Every structure is written in structure tokens, then in C-alpha cells.
Amino acid sequence: MIELEGVAFGWPDAPPLWSGLSLRIAAGEKLVLLGANGGGKSTLLQLLDALVFPRAGSYRYAGETVTPARARRTDWARRFRREVGLLFQHPETMLFNPTVRDEIGYGPRRLGLADAEARIADWAARLRIAHLLDKPPFLLSGGEKQRLALACVLVMEPRLLLLDEPLAHLDPRTARWLLDWLAQSPATVITSTHQLASAPQLGRRALVLAGGGLAYDGPLDEALADTALLARADLA
Ligand SMILES: Nc1ncnc2c1ncn2[C@@H]1O[C@H](COP(=O)(O)OP(=O)(O)OP(=O)(O)O)[C@@H](O)[C@H]1O
Question: pTM for the full model?
């Protein structure tokens, strides 16, 4: 489903974050993305969401190379946005509608989904924010905003789900709900986290970013037992 081949990326006027990054992810895999502060986890998730593009190398999604030109094509972008969802690290950055209802409905309505209103009600109930539907998102608490941001992503029922620190701000009940939901979801899921204790519930395969590249790609339990690797990635 995802193929990165020799990918290099750096933000403008900044040194490369990584180069020569290659990996393959099959449909339905669940991966945990680990790494130090500033190691590039959020950036990698943004690249996989086609918000930024490789400086060198290639990113193929479902067999097609993801390029700025392709992302500008309305038909391709609609299909990609229908299939790929990114939960941003800071929920505020993705909330811009006047009400919680409009926020959850933004994606489904924009893509013209016939069941948009039913989806809004369903996901608001699942995330326990149905009582907030008519409120402006900026009035919500930190955890309520995180639940809303999750609803906005999950309402699209994406095939590829990119979650940037999803457990931050969540109360234990909602965190448990999310972990249980992810465990039964057929979606491909890549989750970045610093919470090593929860990592085994997020996936069996780990990607560790450190030292300007992918320092590890393999079983999560082996990564968690590798003290040298954890130290190199500032994880221990
Ligand atoms: N939009 C941006 N423009 C310019 N530089 C950026 C931007 N976003 C991130 N960076 C820089 O890229 C580097 C990697 O940041 P990124 O947020 O991807 O790391 P991270 O691994 O997610 O970190 P953390 O664990 O602290 O959330 C940092 O040096 C950061 O300052």
C-alpha cells in the first residue's frame, strides 16, 4: 500500500531531516512510529498524507507515485483524501469550523457522501461529544478537542490512518476506546507516540527515526528490548 524508496526530506532553509528512507507497508498493517523530539515523526506523517513531498526519492501510495502535480488534480486529491486521514499532533491546527457538527461534517459533506449527517451523529456518539454538536470547537476542553479531531478523521473511515500522538490529552476511558477500536479496524494505521507503555497495543511493527534516518524497522518487542537503540532515539 505504501512504498518509500530513497526518500529525502528537509524543510525549506533547514538541513535534511532524513535521506535514503525506504520502507514498504502492506494494507492492514499497524505500525508504531517512535523517535526523539524533532526527529521527524510528524513530518513523515505529513509526507504520507501528501501535505509535503520528497526532495528526492519517491512515495508510492496504492501503486501511484505521490507528486505535487498529482495532488493538485481534483479527481486524484478527492480519492486520496477519501482514503487517507491524518490526526494532527495539535488538534487546534485542524479545527476551523463554526460548530462541532460542521467540523465533523466537513470532510463527508465536501466529498458529497450521501450519509454525511448520519455519520456525524454516529461518530459524535462514539467519541462522546454528541452533547457538544452545536458548540464552537474553540470552547472545548483539550481532551474534548482531541476527541473532536479524532471524530473528524475517523468519520471518513479511512483506509490509511495516520495518528500523531493520539493518546495525548485523552482520558483513560477514551484512550481505551481508541485502542480497542484500532485493534478491530481493518485500516492500515501508523501511530506516532512517546508512550512506550501503550506502544504494544498500537501495533507489532516499529519504525524508529534517529540519526537522520530510519534507525530501525522491525518487531516492536525487539525494539523495546534494544536499550542501545532506545538510547540513540532518546527513548530511554
Ligand atoms: N512546518 C515546518 N516548517 C519548518 N520546520 C518544521 C516544520 N515542522 C517541523 N519542522 C522542523 O522539523 C523537525 C522535525 O519536526 P517534527 O515535528 O517532524 O518532529 P517530531 O519527531 O514529530 O517531534 P516531537 O516528538 O517533538 O513531536 C524539527 O526540527 C522542527 O522544528
Answer: 0.94
